Amino acid sequence: MNNYKITILVPIYNEEENIEQFTKEMDLYLNSTKVPSKVLFVNDGSTDRSQELLEGVCQSKEHYHFIELKKNCGLSTAIKAGIDSCDTELLGYIDSDIQTKPTDFNSFFEFFPEYDMVNGIRAKRKDTLVKKLSSKIANSFRRAMINDGIEDTGCPLKIIKTDYAKRIPFFDGMHRFIAALIQLQGGKVKQIPVSHFPRFAGTAKYHLWNRIKKPFFDTFAFRWMRSRYINYEIKNKG
Predict the structure, then answer these.
(1) Which of 13, 122, 172, 183 could lock 196 by a disulfide, CB 3.0 to 4.6 Å apart?
(2) Which residues are bridge partners to 43 per DSSP?
(3) Domain assignments of the chain as residue spans, ordered by start
(4) Cβ atoms within 10 A of the Cβ of 220, count?
(5) Which DSSP string do the residues of 143-189 spell out, in sequence order?
(6) Angle formed by the axes of helices 129-146 and 208-227, nearest 10°
(7) Contact between 135 and 211 (Cβ < 8 Å)
(8) What is the pLDDT of residue 129?
């Protein structure tokens, strides 16, 4: 099948406990959506059985593909690798911990092509107190510093027009500012509520300190980059 409209990126790092159940959830979406979709797992150098499981899924099921990074490079790099590999009009993003549901993507499509990105807002978050607190602190600081109006930049449920995604100036930590980087290009971002659930299995890869420290420094990096960002459109050529 070569008429896909959206590629859904799924970064993977040591998520062997979740892959089977995640695939079941993604199958529910694939079987319900009217938008031709494919899934691209991006294995960010996992050291558990994740790659073995991903290969099994991709060999046995239609619409599933993977790329495997040579070593663990971090979430921003995994997303960038997925964007670079995307050849469809739209690009989706979801985490593999099943805290958000792929079927919620179906409610995003009505906002295209008017908007250039749709970003989820996790309603009634089912995270631990520490995770919710650190996220609230980081989000509040980011909004105060860059005033982008994005309520939940860390929500792992997004759809972006691929041509905008490919122009994102990515570097480490920039996954926290994807919506702001779309706005920087003049793109329009729609925010809608999505469902949220406790992590299905495994453990989060971030603790309180790096959930606060890294976004703090990354926000200053984004402010510096925004002040020097080059954006242009070619009017004519001959």
Answers:
(1) 122
(2) 12, 68
(3) 6-227
(4) 11
(5) HHHH----S-TT-SEEEEEHHHHTT----TTGGGGHHHHHHHTT--E
(6) 10
(7) yes
(8) 60
Tokens of 38: 């494919």
Residue 112 near residue 35, CB atoms below 8 Å: no
**Class of the CATH-defined domain 6-227:** alpha beta
How far apart are the C-alpha atoms of 26 and 116, rounded to whole Å? 23
Q: Please state, in angstroms and as integers, the Cα–Cα distance from residue 159 to each residue in 71, 171, 193, following that order.
A: 27, 20, 14
Taking the CA atoms of the chain, what radius of gyration do you get in angstroms?
17
Token pair of 233 as six digits: 């459109």
Structure tokens at 30: 């694939």
Q: 12 has which bridge partners?
A: 43
Encoded tokens for 125? 């978050």
Nearest Cα residue to 104 out of 200, 16, 8: 8
Of 49, 54, 56, 57, whose CA–CA distance to 67 is shortest?
A: 54
Sequence length of the chain is: 238
Question: Whose structure tokens read 């520490």?
Answer: 130
d(CA 1, CA 34): 15
User: How wide is the angle at C-alpha 191 spanned by C-alphas 39 and 97, nearest 5°?
Assistant: 40
Q: Which amino acid is at 35?
A: V
Write the pLDDT tens digit of every residue in 125-136.
666 665 666 666
